[in-house]
Amino acid sequence: METQNLRLEPTLVGRPRRPVAGPLLLWLTLMLWVAAAPAVVRAAASVRLHSEARMLEILHAERTLLTYTFATNQFKPYVRELITLDGVDLLRDAPADHLHHHGLMYAIKVNGINFWEEAPQAGRQVPQAELIREVRKDPAGRPQARFTQVVHWVEAGHAADPDTKPFALLVEERTITITTDPATEQIQLEWESEFTVGAGAPEVVLTGSSYHGLGIRFRAEFDGVAERYNSEKLAYPDEGREGVLPTRWMAVSHVVAGRPYTLVLFNHPSNPGQPRFFSMQKPFAYLSATQGLDEAPLKYRTGDRWKLSYLLLASPRRMAAEQLDRQYDFFIRP
After folding, report:
1. CA separation for the pair 95, 15 (Å, rounded)
2. Strands 25-35 and 213-217, sheet pairing
3. Which CATH topology does 3-332 take?
4. Using an 8 Å Cβ cutoff, are 294 and 231 in contact?
5. Residue 312 in contact with residue 265, Cβ under 8 Å?
6. What is the pLDDT along the chain (334 residues), one digit of tens a residue?
7. What residues form DSSP beta bridges with 105?
8. What helix, strand, coil percent values describe the chain, rounded to 5?
9. Rounded CA gap, 191 and 74, in Å?
10. Which helix (H) or strand (E) holds 326?
11. Any idea what DSSP says for residue 93?
12. Where are the domains of the chain?
């Protein structure tokens, strides 16, 4: 019988992982039974929490799949690493050409305040320390882990306040779910953000550049050469230039260490605005799921609620368009 492990593990930023004793440490161990043909696979999952943690890891079979960092001195919390089941990290964090590009991150402009860039007056996404964590299996019996965090979007001047809630322009409840499929070697990351207008303003206007949204900076090998393809088979600008296309999903693929790794981003049709994708190949590879806020800003008032849903699929294979169409249909199914 093979043992599969999937767990969430917050750790201390800048310190090596080590056992921590005492009342600050909470252990929760869940035993899950995961159906797998032809045998039944036993999946042991554990959650470890330290009160000073500012980084969370999701592990499978004792190997890190994802790191989510939310230190209070950052401009925003984000996914720093997304590592395939065979050990390849497909993301890149804070490259020299754009220090504000962080792995997988979500940012836009709110009331003219730029939450994407990281200049002194840029907005701050202030994470709240409490994380809700859950380890389970999905309806197909695959190992799954998720966590939820509340994020206050505030002006720079309020980022260090002990209580940022009274100054929040947006209050975001962010949920990230990781599902692993050892049979196909695929990882699925679902990003869901539920927003309300915060106490810091009676009204907010959401705007941004053509690339503002849920953005991915790829590992360096993808730069200048990665293949781009999409659900509608629309053409990309010549010479790898940037462009925006109204498609249901978009994929970026490149061979690393002999395998054609592919990341596919799905944009849910219920997302507010004009769901579309920004992408570029040169001088570096980038992909964003956007709402068209550069052309059609969105306005919300106190009491309004809205939700964004995205799915990111990572595979060590180049996936056929027909297969991705089926995945999209499954993603949007009620």
Report:
1. 22
2. unpaired
3. Beta-galactosidase; Chain A, domain 5 (2.70.98)
4. no
5. yes
6. 333 456 665 544 333 333 333 322 222 222 222 222 222 233 434 333 333 568 899 988 888 899 999 988 899 999 999 999 999 999 999 999 999 999 999 999 999 999 999 999 999 999 997 788 899 989 999 999 999 999 999 999 999 999 999 999 999 999 999 999 999 999 999 999 999 999 999 999 999 999 999 999 999 999 999 999 999 999 999 999 999 999 999 999 999 999 999 999 999 999 999 999 999 999 999 999 999 999 999 999 999 999 999 999 999 999 999 999 999 999 999 8
7. 215
8. 5, 50, 40
9. 20
10. helix 321-332
11. B
12. 3-332
The total of other beta-carbon atoms located within 10 Å of residue 194's CB is 16
41 Cβ partners below 8 Å, 6+ apart? 1, 2, 3, 4, 34, 35
Residues 6+ apart with CB under 8 A from 229: 250, 251, 253, 321
Q: Which two tokens stand for residue 312?
A: 């990111």
Task: Report the alpha-carbon distance of residue 207 to residue 333 in Å, rounded.
Answer: 29
φ, ψ (nearest 5 deg) of residue 208: 160, 175
Question: Which residues sit opposite 251 in a β-bridge?
Answer: 229, 264
Per-position b or e across 214-251, b if 16+ CB within 10 A of its CB? bbbbbbebbbeebbbbbbeeeebeeebeebbbebbbbb
